[in-house]
C-alpha cells in the first residue's frame, strides 16, 4: 500500500466515531471522584495543588475504564501508586536537567516495555509518564512534592472508594463475556443449519475464559450463573459441528436425516440464546416448550444413525446440563410451567458434589515475576515491544528537550502528546496522531471560547473541568478524537484554575500538540516495527500449534488407554491463541504502507487469505475428531498411529519451509493416509474421514504458500 493511501486510511479511521453502549452511571461516578479531589484541594490547599491532585484522580478513573478483568478498585489504586511515585521522582530531579532527562528516558522505556504484559498495562504506564510531565511544571519544594504525590495517590483511593461504595452492575462485564460466548455458539448452530461447514469465531470463547479467571475471594462471591456455563459452551461447539458435518456426521445434505439435524440445531440455538439472556440480565432461565420437545430422544431411536446419532445424543445431554446448571426452577414457556431444580440427594460427604474448580487469577504481587519474564522475553531486537519502548524513550526525551528550548512555557505538551499517541504498531499510532490533533483543536476551541466569554474563577473552572472529564468517561468508547477533545478541554479548564491565560494555553496547545504528534509519527516511520515481514513466521506458528492439537487428538485415537484430555485441551488453547495472533498481525499488515521486497518473506494477500482458510479447516478437522475420542477401553487404532507418526515430522518440516519460503512436501502424509484407507473397512471410520479432511487442508495450505 502506498504511503499516501495508508495515511489517508489511518486518518479516516482515527477520525471515525463508533456507536457504543454508553454507561452514564460509571461516568458520573468517575467524575464525582475527580470533583471530590479538586474540591478538597481547593478548600484546604492552593490552585496548583488542586491541578496536581486532579490529574491523579483523572488518570485513576481512566485506568478503571480499561478492558481488564481485575477489580476496578485495584486498577485505580495501582494507577495512583504509579502516578505518585513517578511524580515525586520527577519533582526531585526536575531541577537538574540531565538527571530529569535520564529519569524520563528510563521511565518511558519501562512504560513501553509494559505493553508486553498487555494493552491495559501499557496504557496505564504511559499515563504515568504523561502526568509526570505536567505536574512537575507546578513549582514546589520537596515537602510540597510529597504533598502532591500524596494527593495524587489520594485521588486513586477516592476513585476506588466510590467503586466499592456505589457499585454499578457488579460482575456485569463477566456476565456480558459469558453471555456473548453462549450467543456466539447459538449463532454458530443457526448458521450450521444452512451451511454445514460454517466457520466459527473462537474469540468470544477466549474472552469468556479470560473473564472466568478469578481470585479465591472472587470465586467465593461469584454469582451462581457464572459457574459452569463456559465449559458447556466449549462442549457444545464440537457437538454441533460434528452433527452438522455431512462427512463426519454422515447425515446427507437432503432428506429426513438432514431435517432432523436442522431441528436439533435450531432447538439447541434457542436453548443457548435463552441461557445467554438469563446470564446477561441475571434472571431466571426461560426455555420454550417447543425446543424442549425437539431435544428429546425419539422412541425407536429416530432417523439418525452412526456418528450422527452419537452427536445428537451428546447434544441432547448437553441441553439437559444447561437446565441442571441453572440450579433453580427453570421457567418453561409452554404447557409444563416450572421445572423444579434438581434435588440434593446426597447422604454422605462423598456423595456431596465438590465445589466447582475455577481459573485462578494471580495477585498483583504474583505478577512481578510475570512482568520480569515478559521483560526478558521482549528484550530482543526483533521484538515490536522493545522497538516501541526505545521509540517512546527517544521521542519523549527529544520532545522534552525541544519543548524546553522553545519560547512557550508549556513545551511539555510535545512529549506528552508523543507518549499518548505512540503505540507498538503503525495503524494505531497514526490513527491516534490524526485523532489527537483534530480533537485538540476542537477541545481547545470550545474550552478557550468559554474561558474568553465567561472569564470564570477557580471554582467555575473546576466545575467545567469536572463536566469535561465526565463527558470523556461517558464517550470513551466512541473514538479517540472525541476523547482527545474532552481531555484538551479538561486541561484548559484545569490550568484556568491556576490562573493560566486561556489564549496562551489554547494557541500553544494546538501547535505544540501538532508538533508532538508529528514527532511521534515521524519516529515510527524512521524506526518502524513492520508486521508484514513477520507474516510467514506467524503463519508457521499457527501451523505448528494446529499440528500439536491434531496430533494430541490422533494420539488419543491411537492409544485410547493413554489418552490425556488435559493435553488436548492445552493444545486447543494454544491453537486458538496462535490463530488470534495471526489474525491481528494480518490486520495490522494490511494497513502498513510498505511491502517486504524479500522473496523469502513475501506473502501476497491472496496467499495469506488462502493459507488462513486452510488452517481454519485444519483446526476444524481436529475439533471434529475430538468429538469422537473413544473411551479408554476402546481398541487402539493402528492406522491413526501410523498416520500420526508420518504427520509429526511433516508438520515440523512444513513450518520450517513456510518460514524460509520453500515448497511444502506432504508426500509422507498422503502415503500414510492411503495405507490407513486400504486397511480400513467400509464404511470408513470417523478417524479416517477426519484425517482425510485434515490432509486436504494441508494440501490447500501448501498450494497457497508454495512459491510459484
UniProtKB/TrEMBL annotation:
Q: What is its main location?
A: membrane
InterPro entries recorded for this chain? Memb_transporter_dom
What is the protein's membrane topology class? Answer: Multi-pass membrane protein
Keyword set, alphabetical order? Cell membrane, Membrane, Transmembrane, Transmembrane helix
Give start and end of each Integral membrane bound transporter domain. 400-522
Locate the transmembrane regions by residue number: 74-93, 99-116, 149-168, 433-453, 482-504, 510-530
Q: Which domain of life is it from?
A: Bacteria
Does the UniProt entry include the keyword Aminoacyl-tRNA synthetase?
no
Q: Which Pfam families match?
A: FUSC_2
**A single GO cellular-component term on record:** plasma membrane
Kindly list the places in or outside the cell where this protein is found, as annotated in its UniProt entry: Cell membrane
Answer whether the UniProt record assigns the keyword Transmembrane helix to this protein. Answer: yes
Tell me which family the UniProt entry assigns to this protein: Belongs to the YccS/YhfK family.
Official protein name in the record: FUSC family protein
Species this protein is from: Streptomyces boncukensis
UniProt lineage: Bacteria, Bacillati, Actinomycetota, Actinomycetes, Kitasatosporales
Amino acid at each position: 500500500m502506498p504511503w499516501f493511501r495508508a495515511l489517508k486510511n489511518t486518518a479516516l479511521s482515527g477520525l471515525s466515531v463508533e456507536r457504543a453502549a454508553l454507561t452514564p452511571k460509571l461516568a458520573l461516578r468517575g467524575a464525582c471522584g475527580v470533583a471530590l479531589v479538586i474540591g478538597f484541594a481547593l478548600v484546604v490547599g492552593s490552585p496548583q495543588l488542586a491541578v496536581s491532585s486532579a490529574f491523579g484522580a483523572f488518570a485513576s478513573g481512566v485506568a478503571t475504564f480499561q478492558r481488564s478483568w481485575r477489580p476496578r478498585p485495584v486498577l485505580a489504586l495501582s494507577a495512583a501508586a504509579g502516578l505518585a511515585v513517578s511524580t515525586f521522582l520527577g519533582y526531585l530531579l526536575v531541577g537538574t536537567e540531565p538527571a530529569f532527562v535520564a529519569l524520563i528516558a528510563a521511565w518511558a522505556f519501562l512504560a513501553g516495555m509494559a505493553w508486553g504484559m498487555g494493552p491495559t498495562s501499557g496504557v496505564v504506564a504511559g499515563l504515568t509518564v504523561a502526568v509526570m510531565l505536567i505536574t512537575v511544571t507546578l513549582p514546589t519544594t520537596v515537602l510540597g512534592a510529597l504533598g502532591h504525590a500524596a494527593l495524587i495517590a489520594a485521588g486513586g483511593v477516592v476513585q476506588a472508594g466510590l467503586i466499592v461504595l456505589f457499585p454499578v452492575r457488579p460482575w456485569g462485564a463477566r456476565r456480558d463475556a459469558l453471555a456473548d460466548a453462549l450467543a456466539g455458539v447459538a449463532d454458530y448452530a443457526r448458521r450450521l443449519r444452512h451451511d454445514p461447514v460454517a466457520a466459527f469465531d473462537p474469540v468470544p470463547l477466549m474472552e469468556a475464559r479470560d473473564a472466568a479467571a478469578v481470585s479465591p475471594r472472587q470465586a467465593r462471591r461469584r454469582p451462581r450463573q457464572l459457574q459452569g456455563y463456559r465449559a458447556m459452551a466449549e462442549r457444545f461447539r464440537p457437538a454441533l459441528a460434528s452433527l452438522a458435518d455431512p462427512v463426519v456426521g454422515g447425515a446427507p445434505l437432503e432428506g429426513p436425516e438432514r431435517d432432523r439435524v436442522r431441528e436439533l440445531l435450531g432447538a439447541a440455538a434457542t436453548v443457548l440464546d435463552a441461557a445467554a439472556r438469563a446470564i446477561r440480565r441475571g434472571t431466571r432461565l426461560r426455555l420454550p416448550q417447543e425446543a424442549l420437545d425437539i431435544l428429546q430422544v425419539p422412541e425407536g431411536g429416530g432417523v439418525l444413525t452412526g456418528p450422527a446419532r452419537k452427536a445428537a445424543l451428546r447434544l441432547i445431554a448437553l441441553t439437559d446440563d444447561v437446565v441442571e446448571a441453572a440450579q433453580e426452577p427453570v421457567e418453561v414457556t409452554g404447557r409444563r410451567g416450572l421445572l423444579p431444580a434438581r434435588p440434593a440427594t446426597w447422604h454422605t460427604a462423598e456423595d456431596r458434589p465438590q465445589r466447582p474448580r475455577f481459573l485462578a487469577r494471580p495477585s498483583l504481587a504474583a505478577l512481578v515475576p510475570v512482568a520480569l519474564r515478559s521483560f526478558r522475553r521482549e528484550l530482543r531486537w526483533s521484538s515490536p515491544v522493545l522497538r516501541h519502548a526505545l521509540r517512546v524513550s527517544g521521542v519523549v526525551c527529544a520532545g522534552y528537550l525541544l519543548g524546553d528550548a522553545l519560547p512557550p512555557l508549556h513545551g511539555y505538551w510535545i512529549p506528552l502528546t508523543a507518549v499518548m499517541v505512540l503505540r507498538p504498531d503503525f495503524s494505531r499510532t497514526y490513527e491516534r496522531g490524526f485523532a489527537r490533533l483534530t480533537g485538540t483543536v476542537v477541545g481547545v476551541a470550545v474550552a478557550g471560547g468559554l474561558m474568553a466569554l465567561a472569564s470564570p474563577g477557580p471554582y467555575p473552572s473546576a466545575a467545567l473541568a469536572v463536566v469535561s472529564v465526565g463527558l470523556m468517561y461517558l464517550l470513551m468508547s466512541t473514538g479517540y478524537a472525541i476523547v482527545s477533545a474532552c481531555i484538551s478541554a479538561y486541561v484548559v479548564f484545569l490550568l484556568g484554575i491556576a490562573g493560566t491565560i486561556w489564549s496562551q494555553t489554547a494557541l500553544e496547545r494546538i501547535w505544540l500538540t501538532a508538533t508532538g504528534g508529528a514527532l511521534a509519527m515521524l519516529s515510527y516511520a524512521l524506526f518502524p516495527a513492520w508486521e508484514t515481514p513477520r507474516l510467514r513466521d506467524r503463519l508457521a506458528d499457527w501451523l505448528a500449534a494446529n499440528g500439536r492439537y491434531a496430533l494430541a487428538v490422533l494420539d488419543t485415537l491411537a492409544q485410547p488407554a493413554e489418552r490425556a484430555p488435559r493435553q488436548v485441551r492445552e493444545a486447543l488453547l494454544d491453537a486458538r491463541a496462535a490463530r488470534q495472533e495471526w489474525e491481528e498481525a494480518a490486520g495490522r499488515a494490511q494497513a502498513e504502507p510498505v511491502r517486504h521486497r524479500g522473496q523469502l518473506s513475501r506473502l501476497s494477500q491472496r496467499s495469506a487469505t488462502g493459507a488462513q482458510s486452510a488452517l481454519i479447516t485444519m483446526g476444524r478437522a481436529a475439533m471434529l475428531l475430538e468429538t469422537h475420542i473413544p473411551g479408554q477401553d476402546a481398541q487402539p487404532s493402528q492406522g491413526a498411529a501410523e498416520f500420526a507418526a508420518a504427520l509429526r515430522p511433516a508438520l515440523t518440516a512444513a513450518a520450517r519451509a513456510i518460514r524460509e519460503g520453500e515448497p511444502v512436501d506432504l508426500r509422507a502424509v498422503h502415503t500414510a493416509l492411503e495405507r490407513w484407507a486400504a486397511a480400513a473397512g467400509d464404511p470408513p471410520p470417523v478417524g479416517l474421514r477426519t484425517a482425510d479432511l485434515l490432509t486436504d487442508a494441508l494440501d490447500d495450505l501448501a498450494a497457497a504458500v508454495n512459491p510459484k
